[in-house]
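Input record (Table S2, row 462):
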Amino acid sequence: MDQDKVKILVIDDDPKVSWLLSESLGKTYEIVSAKDGPEGLQMVSKTKPNLVLLDIKMPGMEGLEVLDRIKSMDQLTEVIMLSGHGETKNVVESIKRGASEFINKPFDVKEVEIHIQNVLEKNHLKKELDHLKKELKDRSQYETLVGDSFPMLQIKTVIEQVADSELTVLIRGESGTGKEIVARMLHTLSSRKNEPFIKVNCAAIPRELLEAELFGYEKGAFTGAFKTKQGRFETANKGTIFLDEIGDMPLELQSKLLQVLEHYEFMRVGGIKTIKVDTRIVCATNRDLNKALKDQTIREDLFYRLNEVTLNLPPLRERREDIPLLIEHFLQRYNTVYNKKYHPLSSKTVQLLQEYDWPGNVRQLENLIKQVVVREDEEIIYDTIKMSSLHTGSYAAPTPSFTQAKDYSLKNRVGEVVAQQEKSLISEVLSKTNWNRRKAAQLLEVSYRSLLYKIKEYQLTG
Ligand SMILES: Nc1ncnc2c1ncn2[C@@H]1O[C@H](COP(=O)(O)OP(=O)(O)OP(=O)(O)O)[C@@H](O)[C@H]1O
Ligand SMILES: [Mg+2]
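Output record (adenosine-5'-triphosphate complex):
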């Protein structure tokens, strides 16, 4: 620790004490002193010491009162009490009120030095912890669902309604749609927020181990079970357990899970004692559970029990209006993380991102924006999307206008011509039908939705 700057204030009515301390500690610390409480308090607000050595017994304002006032100015100012004989009661009281230590008079200077070092060390740790807590809080602020499209607003409303209830929530949605964020929100918006949130990925743990992982085991339950171990349900007691990929849970375990859902009790593997827990259960899956029901890979009774509240997270391509907001959110996040100042994306790029189909949903968008920020290069978006469209055939990227060299790509050139034709045909049909979009879609033999996209894409107006 840098001790050059550590400032210590001595408040004592006995000038010998102040003198002795500044003589002996003056080399290591900056020592200032005050002869009584009122003067001491003035010095505290003026010099902002890291630590105060405070006499308990002083004429006028007593040490305890001075202590209270110092703490109310700044909780993080450390105070060590200096006490004479027969002041045990006051010593105890001062510790209750926030003093870190006390030193009996007369003291040995070496002893004082050790106390000071201890207290400063603890103070340093306290500040570090405060900093970490703040960082954690900042990070959890990121863990909110970005999006104000209608389906997202609906989902946020339901989350708020059910977060603090005991209802079992099933979160469904394609990969990357934000199921885990929702699970965490359900926890942090409930009165369980200060208790554990435990995630178990049912697909990632081998089926032989999953039962022991979830419910724990007794010593000797199987080879290698050297001692009794708590399962995740117990660890999550009073908090929330998030069973991810619930569609992958083996059938044998499903009945045990059902029992927990019904009675909040179970036995450890190899155990005979019933264990009761108060654990909130939230599940998620990106599988088609209706199909799993038909295939009998999920128990019907479990399915209905899990289904008390279902949140269906829509894929990103069904709420394209959220894309600009998400782009903004991730640009901000990764500029902060990587200490960059990458400017907003051009409107053309945003438009391209809004038209793309996002098979990997928000996760894919997030990763792309992260790369753009790290490499400070927006053009990689065009390459990435073009590549991925060639694989999936989901989107024909428009020719980027910033391509300086002449574009000989057959695909692009033909695409341009097709787009021209498409645009004029659609305009023609729209004006013929007086901008009746349904009728126009019928005539064009395309779906209503894809007509709406085309109208937006070509910026057609009536
Ligand atoms: N609405 C959103 N707002 C902000 N970030 C989001 C949103 N949806 C998803 N994300 C981010 O996208 C990434 C993927 O989200 P998450 O892990 O919750 O997806 P998932 O649905 O659980 O996917 P999988 O089925 O693959 O596990 C995370 O980094 C998450 O922070
Ligand atoms: Mg997930």
